[in-house]
Amino acid sequence: MSPPPLRWVANAACDLHWRDWGADHVLFNNASGQTHFLNELGAASLMLLVGGRGAVDDVGRLLCAERGADRDAELYNYLVDMLHDMDDLGLVEPVLS
Length: 97
Hints:
Layout: E1 7-10, E2 16-21, E3 24-29, E4 34-38, H1 40-50, H2 56-67, H3 73-88, E5 92-95
Antiparallel strand pairs: 1-5, 2-3, 3-4
Helix pairs in contact: 2-3
């Protein structure tokens, strides 16, 4: 896998509608007609990116701070994979800045 881009941003073309049931989240993208099921970490990450762009390290640091957890290599690798998956789904996109 290639190294992660410096920053990620939510895809501006998305028209997102959320439903939250605690740890389970359903996201409908009106622009694509697709429905996505997200876990709590995926939903929190995407919500952070909807608010602006962020590097994987920034997203990980903010998520850990919210949960009182330590950031580790496992979380970093999970975030990188998840952001690439969200990119494949058209929800986020890499930006080089």
